[in-house]
Sequence to fold (681 residues):
Amino acid sequence: MGNIRVGIDVGGTFTDFTVLDDETGGMRHFKVSSTPHDPSEAIEIGIASFQARGLTASDVVHFGHGTTVATNMVIERRGGKTGLLTTEGFRDVLEIGRQTRPDLFDMSVRKPEPLVVRPLRLEVHERLGPDGDVIVPLDEAGVEDAAKRFRAEGVEAVAIGFLHSYRNAAHERRAAEIIRKHLPGVFVSLSSDVLPEFREYERISTTVMNAYLMPRMDGYLDRFMKRSRQAGIDAKPYTIHSNGGLMSTETARNYPVRTCLSGPAAGVVGAALVGKAASFPDVITFDVGGTSTDVALIAGGKPAYSADRDVAGYSIRCAMVDVSVIGAGGGSIAWLDDAGGLKVGPQSAAAVPGPAAYGKGGTDATITDANIVLQRLNPIALLDGTMPVDREAALSAISAVAEKIGRSVEDTAWGIIRIAVANMARAIRAVSMDKGHDLKQFALMAFGGAGPLHASLVAAETGLNTVIIPESPGTMCARGVLLSDVTRDFVSTQIKRAQGEGWSEITSAVAGLEKQAREWLEAETIPDDKRALQHIAEARYAGQNHEIRVEGILSSAEDFSVRFAEAHRVVYGYALDNHPVEIVNLRVQAIGHAGRPLQTVEGASGTMTDARVGERDVYVGPEGGWKTVPVYKRALMPQGEKFAGPAIVEELTSTAYVLPDQTGVVDGYGNIILSFVKDRS
Fold:
C-alpha cells in the first residue's frame, strides 16, 4: 500500500482498526484486544502488527482515534483532584443545578456527589454585569489566598467560572495568571474558554468536568503519542470529539470534556457517510454492543445534534451528536421483577463473567444466551470459529428462567429477545417520531457486534422497510474516525432579535467568529482547498426558554426567519407568523476536510450458492417454530444477486439474522441491503 490513513476506536473489549489506502481506496479492518489499564498499549500492539498485515507504519499520512477514556474516568471517578474558583455567592451553583429529578416520584434517587467537594469550591469578590461591564473589580488578593488554599490541599486542576464571563473574560484570565503563578504545573480551565455561553450551571458544570479530566487525559495522550511514535507513525494524531469531528491532540489536552461521546459519535459519522454513498441519506443508526444500544438519527446525510448531555449524572454542554443510549446489549441479563414479570437489562454480565455460553463463570441468562439457544448465533463457536461457545450452559441459564415463569425454553428465549427488541424500538422512536420525523422515510443501519443480529426484528417492530448492514459492522466506529473532518466550534452568546437593528450586531458577531475560525484553521495547518466554515444559530421565539438549532449561512434576516420557522415546525409541529425570533447563541464551525469519498469495492466472484457454507436449525418464532436455515459467509457473497430469508450471514465481527419475509442483496459498497417483501408502512 502507498499512503495510508488509519482510524482507531478504543473500546472496552476490543480496539478496532480501519486502514484506507489513499491511492486505491481499498479498505481493511482488524481488531486487537483492548488494554483497559492503559488503552494506548493496545494501539501500539495494533500498529506493531502492521508489518505482518502487509502495511508500513511510515506510510501513514492521517492518524485519528476515538476513545472512551474520558467517559470511563467520569463513571469510575478517576479524574484529578479539582478545585473551583467562582464569584462570591455562587459556590453552590454546581450542587444546586436545575433541581430537576430523573424520576419525580422516586424518593430513593440520589444525585452523584459533585466533582469538586464543597471545601474546595472557593469564592472571590468580583462581579460583572450581563453586558460584561465591571461592577466589582477582581479581588486579586482573594485569588492569591485561594491559590494558597488549593496548593495546601494538593489539587491537580482548577476550574475558574465567574458570573457573566462569557461577555468579558478579563477577570477569569487575570485569576488564571495568579493561579498559575502560585501553582505551576496545575491544570487550569476557564469557563470563558470551555463554554463562553450564558446559563451559569451548565457553564460551570462543563468547566469543572473539563478540569477534572485534564490531568489524567494529559497523561493518556502523552502515552498515546509516545507509543505511536515508537511504533513508527510520524503523522500528526487526531482525536474525535463529541460533535463527530476530529481535533488535534493539543486541543484534546485542553478540552477533554469534548471527547465524552467520542466513540459513539464516530459510529454515527461513519454511518452518515456510508448511508449517503449508498443513496440512503435518511438513516437511523443502530449500534449494539455488549452492554448498551446507541441510536441516532441522520436526516439528509447530517446527524442530529444536541447541546446538553448527562454523563454519569453530570451535566455538560457542548455541541454533540445526539446519541440515545439504553442498557440493552448482548450481555444484558434477563430477570424477574417483584410481580414475576420478565425483564431484560439494564444490568449486564459485561465481559467478565459474560454470558453463560462464554464459559467464563457467568450463570445469568443474557440476550446472547437466548440467541445461542435459538441458534441464531452459531451454537459451536463465534469469531470465525476462534471463540468456542457452550450451548448447554446457555440452555441451563435460560431453563432456570423458564422454570420460574412456567414457559418452555424456546418461549423464554424468544421472550427475552422480544423484550430487548421492544426496548430498542422505543429508543428508535424517541430519536425519530418523538422529534417530529416520519419514521417511514428512514432506513435502519445496523452495526456493532450485535446490531445486525437484532436489526431486522427491530425494523419489523418499528415499521422500517430497509435495513443496511455495512461492511465489517463491528468496526464502524473506527471507520467513522477515519472518515471524519477536523472541526472546531467557535461560539458567542447574543440573545438578540433577528429582526431590525439586532441583525447588524449578529452579522458583526459572525464576522468576529469567522476570524477566530480562520486563525484556528491556519494554526492547524489545514490546506486552503480543504477549509470550510459553517454557520449555526441556536434560536427561539421571544418568550420561549429553550433554543433549536438552525444550520446554514446567515445571509439575511428574512432568509433566517424562514429557515427557523421550518426547523421549529419539525421540532414542535407549528410555527408562528410575525412573532419575533431571538438568536441566543451563534456558532461558526471551522472545518478541515480530512476524509475522502467512499469508493465502491470489488465483490466476491462466485454466486450465492458458493457463499452458502452450511445450514442449521433456527427457531424463527412461535408460529414458524424450528426451520432449517441456510448459513452464508459474508466474504463470499457476490454483489447484485438477491437472496431470501430466513437466513444467517456470518462474518468475523458480527452475525446477521434475516427474517422469513425479507430479501437481501449486496451493493457496490459492500453493504447488505435487506428489504421486506411487503411494504410495512
